[in-house]
# Entry
Amino acid sequence: MISYNDFLNDIKSKKITSFEFTSQIFSKIKLNIELNAFITITEESALNQAKESDLRFKEGTQRPLEGMIIAIKDNISTKDIRTTCASKMLENYSPIYDANVITRIKEAGGIIIGKTNMDEFAMGSSNETSFFGSVKNPLNHNKIPGGSSGGSASAVSSGLCHLALGSDTGGSIRQPASFCGIYGYKPSYGRISRYGLIAFASSLDQIGFLSAEIDSISRITDVLSGEDEKDSTCLKKPNISSLDSLNNFPSEFKVGVMGKDLLEKCNSEVYETYCESIEKIKALGGEIVDVDFRFTEAWIPTYYILATAEASSNLSRFDGVRFGFRANLSEKQKIYKTTRSQGFGAEVKRRIMTGTYVLSSGYYDAYYKKAQQVRRVISDDYNTAFSKVDFIFIPTTPSTAFGFNEKSADPVMMYLSDFFTASANLAGIPGINIPIKNNSEGMPIGMQIQTKHLDDEKLLMFANFLGLKLKN
Amino acid sequence: METKEIVRNIANLANLEYSESELETLVPQFEKILSYIAVIDNLDLEGIEPLPHIIDELNYFREDEPKQSVSQTDALKNAPKKNDNFFKVPKVLE
# Structure
């Protein structure tokens, strides 16, 4: 993995130029082509940006992300660079505008090297639903990298970028970060503009970051957060300011833990790592407090009802008329049905079906309304918990990275791998995966910190703290 | 209603279609998903206000002044079929 701080030091000591460094990155991407982490690479524009970075380093006019090598999940719109959502539906779609986060990265001197592979329309936990094929976990090519931001996680973990953008609807940043042994941060809902993020479930989706270093995550968070008039769900607040307080470590703090019955969903190595971590947190001065959550058996059903309902509505725009794929139609075929049936993959269609079902007449009160009520309970329970504790500390995933085809035949099994992550999206709170250690087979185990909505500065500081102290 | 019939009906609402052989795989999966999410139907949620969204402020207002809009060229750029000024679609009236 590569470090942006090391890069800045090498620039300062004139060991390397941004142009040379960026060129090396593309050689490395080509050597690692079998990971299938990228759908599109943007070598020419990246090298041009690197030249400008060199000029600015020389003149002393460098911007906050100058020369940082950044990969972008392929559901974030990039002007004139195809943005596919890893779907046949958008295989040749080229956006006519940049997402707000892309505009800001460019203005801050970040170098965009390409678009990363993902589960189709971000629907999946293993990156196996991509139209462009599965992504491999760099630590073991027979294992999945996690999903849906699997390409982003794989690219960071194999040292192909300093940082990658992802999106997290139910764990899609934190889970692959955990499986690939890196940091993965989902900011508070409403802190980073979703303008230009192709919507899956609008009330849950959040753009966030994956990196080997918390420091790089903090830098980019400070640049990309803050209000945007083009996203009405983006709060009218100034940018997050986390970098300056990243090392303000606490001497006393309260950490909430969930009941043992919930931790039993984990396999033994994850559970043991969790218990070891709790002991270390105690030794660091942390007070451990039990926190209660109601209806936990309904967390994942609630998440799937709301996410698929919103998805069925959001994905109705893909009709083969104005943009994207259109099926070759025979005389009797209907344009919408034929295009959508051929253009979407099996998992996307399954979720559209589930969403349409829960919203359909006669089922709305039984599913959609009840799910919104459970969402209220989850949000209230988190509020109660955070009136007693500063942070909640839980595993990120119940297991380490699994093998290809291990869960893909059983959608419900796959959905359960989001158990520890989806509740944060439902409550809108921030969460982050911190890499702890590798198991006996060399696969990473990660733990998750969550905190109160809008306390992102505090979360990043604490992730920096535990990241340093808990690592074996 | 049988699950297969429900699936056919929902597919129609969602503008999707499945072949008979695809239905053979989908119907048992759909049954499993429905019985999994049905957990929620057994909860006592009496009196709990639904939470549709966690952000309360949901509007950005601006002065009603004309701004640059998307050009026709850009709007048609990704069209699967077009002529000079229009999206082209199959004939819908007989």
